[in-house]
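Pasting as-is:
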Amino acid sequence: MQTAIALFKTAQEAQRAVDRLTEQGYGDQEITLIQGGETSTAEKLMSQARIPEQEHQFYVQGLRDGGTLVLVRAEESRAQRAADLLTEFDMVNMDTRGVQSQAVGQSQTVGQNQARMRQGATDEAVIPVVEEDIQIGKREVQRGGVRVRTEITERPVEEQVSLREEHVHVERRPVDRAATDADFTTFKEGAFELTETAEEAVVAKQARVIEEVVIGKDATERTETVRDSVRRTDVDVEQIEGQTQTTGTTDFATYDTDFRSYYDSTLANKGYTYEQYSPVFRYGYGLANDSRYRNKSWNDIESSARTDWEAKNPGTWDDFKDSVRYAWQRVTGQR
């Protein structure tokens, strides 16, 4: 799925664009209209579409300024067609923030990376060569575990214990005998007490540790193979011969067998196919047939050749210059 995006100053112009898309068969599930203030919705959709940060901020700020955003999420060909349709309307220019009404605002997520024209002394096409890197790290995630709870329960306990009790009883017995000295000893006023005692049950509790529950963790390591893919932009550079080229120049195909032989003996282990090296040989072939460099040595033209190459393929001249030179020497017959 690809995304086409356009920012409009007014809701009316955005609605005109939506009406046009609807006329061309785009459904509600493909078109999203976001008016000013709905930045959270816009940010979520653009994050899902992987809009570059600079464009992301541009669209969000445009909404905050009262603009209206139109997003079309569809298959690649339909998204490209939607982008073309949106250019028919007055969209906000990303560089001038609305000073000019130009057909810009399409995300680079539509189609392949497209060349942008910069106006200066001369027009030049800048093609970004993009290559993805992959970083593989690791993070901790919770896989499970145990939860241990403690609770106190009660159970009834019943024990039998023997208890002793004393009871005082008074018994009166009729007696008829002569009083003795012992009797006269007690023949006086006084009080006599006899107490009763009894045993009662006493309960005492003592806590004892009868078991220990030990909770621990064991850590193990495993090796996991992570498989993914990374993308890169391959640029096919083809020299276009102009009218200043002399007639009768040998066609590039004439040297194909020789270039393939050089590739097999020298370049096959570089990690590129012959088809990927073909633009390099073609560039050397073009130098050899360029009227600006006719009858000049390699040392005379290398600086200019490097500059032209690096303008379209930054940072790669040192990797391919030997192959460029070989093609140039083969065509010119110089060594």
